[in-house]
């Protein structure tokens, strides 16, 4: 299968994040994508291609236009204040505080985010934009008949909602690609999110729509980030009611437990009648992941790919999380190899 990748991801390199009360170097770092690319090459998965430029229009099909323009222009406004350290949000509206959009950059950073896990530096927008173009380019391969494609996206996207960033995510690459598949002629698309964290942003974007089925297998939000979404009773709304499935699992879940949820998700997808599948491929379910609590092992990812392939659907794999950098390439490419085998 074809991999899409851009070196632009290196332009995005956050300094620090808060983890368990401690300021730490960002877990979401450039070496993650480098390790996956190296494994794609060393296993001979297939050709690696640079993305085409589809512009902002397909991004604004799922994201609020003002939010996208804010992301694009934020660094220039920050730098104009004489600031050169990472840009970060610091204040958010809680219950009963009306969410008006303030005028200055600090207020707007809070307005357009839900947490502080989204540092930006001078090159971040270019990396964010290119990551979305990587997903769009990979999507285009399915539209022209390939059975699978891999979007090696960085930064990741599944926590980014219609008009907010969070959790290392700025633009929702998988959602942007899904909408492009629909705009290119697909009637229904299923999104399977296997990242350790609930794909709250993707859920937000498609929550009221029946043309996109969203399923996420993740750490139980009672105990795990993103804390406020990912419960099993979130089933969709309005016309989208019944098209959202969450599988929250307990800490310590291993392949035996995890694959039961996968089997149910695959059964639901098979019954939906999708024209294509988008997989939000996070490998932070790995037993050694530094910020997660599942117990999948490297060979389990081969099984994951094989079982996803059993659907027989054209499938787009979009890279999301995974922070055990030494094994991230092995685990991510195992899913793709398992799919292709
Ligand atoms: N102590 C993705 O995997 N911090 N984002 C969790 C746990 C945020 C993860 C802290 C994790 C965001 C794309
Ligand atoms: Zn994750």
From TrEMBL:
What this protein needs as a cofactor is: Zn(2+)
Q: Which InterPro entries match?
A: HDACs (IPR000286), His_deacetylse_dom (IPR023801), His_deacetylse_dom_sf (IPR037138), Ureohydrolase_dom_sf (IPR023696)
Identify the Pfam families for this entry: Hist_deacetyl
Keywords linked to the UniProt accession: Hydrolase, Metal-binding, Zinc
Q: Where is the Histone deacetylase domain?
A: 28-335
The UniProt family comment states: Belongs to the histone deacetylase family.
Protein's name in the database: Acetylpolyamine amidohydrolase
Q: What is the lineage of its organism?
A: Bacteria, Pseudomonadati, Pseudomonadota, Gammaproteobacteria, Pseudomonadales
């Amino acid at each position: 299968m074809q991999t899409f990748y851009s070196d632009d991801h290196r332009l995005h390199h956050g300094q620090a994040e808060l983890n368990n009360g401690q300021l730490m170097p960002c877990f979401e770092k450039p070496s993650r994508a480098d390790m996956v690319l190296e494994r794609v090459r060393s296993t001979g998965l297939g050709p690696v291609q640079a993305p085409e430029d589809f512009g902002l229009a397909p991004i604004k099909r799922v994201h609020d236009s003002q939010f996208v323009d804010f992301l694009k222009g934020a660094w220039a406004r920050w730098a104009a204040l004489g600031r050169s350290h990472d840009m970060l949000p610091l204040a958010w509206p809680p219950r009963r505080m009306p969410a008006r959009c303030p005028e200055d950059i600090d207020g707007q950073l809070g307005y357009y985010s839900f947490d502080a896990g989204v540092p930006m530096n001078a090159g971040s927008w270019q990396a964010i934009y290119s990551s979305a173009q990587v997903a769009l380019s990979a999507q285009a391969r399915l539209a022209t008949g390939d059975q699978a494609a891999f979007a090696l996206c960085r930064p990741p996207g599944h926590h980014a909602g219609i008009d907010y960033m969070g959790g290392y995510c700025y633009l929702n690459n998988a959602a942007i690609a899904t909408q492009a598949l629909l705009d290119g002629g697909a009637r229904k698309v299923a999104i399977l999110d296997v990242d350790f964290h609930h794909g709250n942003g993707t859920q937000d974007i498609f929550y009221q729509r029946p043309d996109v089925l969203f399923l996420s297998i993740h750490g139980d939000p009672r105990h795990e980030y993103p804390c406020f979404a990912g419960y099993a009773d979130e089933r969709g709304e309005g016309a989208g009611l019944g098209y959202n499935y969450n599988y929250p699992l307990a800490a310590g879940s291993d392949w035996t437990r995890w694959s039961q949820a996968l089997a149910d998700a695959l059964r639901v997808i098979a019954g939906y009648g999708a024209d294509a599948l988008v997989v939000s491929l996070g490998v932070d379910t790995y037993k050694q992941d530094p910020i997660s609590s599942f117990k999948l092992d490297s060979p389990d990812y081969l099984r994951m790919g094989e079982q996803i392939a059993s659907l027989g659907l054209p499938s787009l794999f979009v890279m999301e999380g995974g922070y055990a950098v030494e094994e991230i390439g092995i685990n991510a490419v195992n899913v793709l190899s398992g799919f292709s085998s």
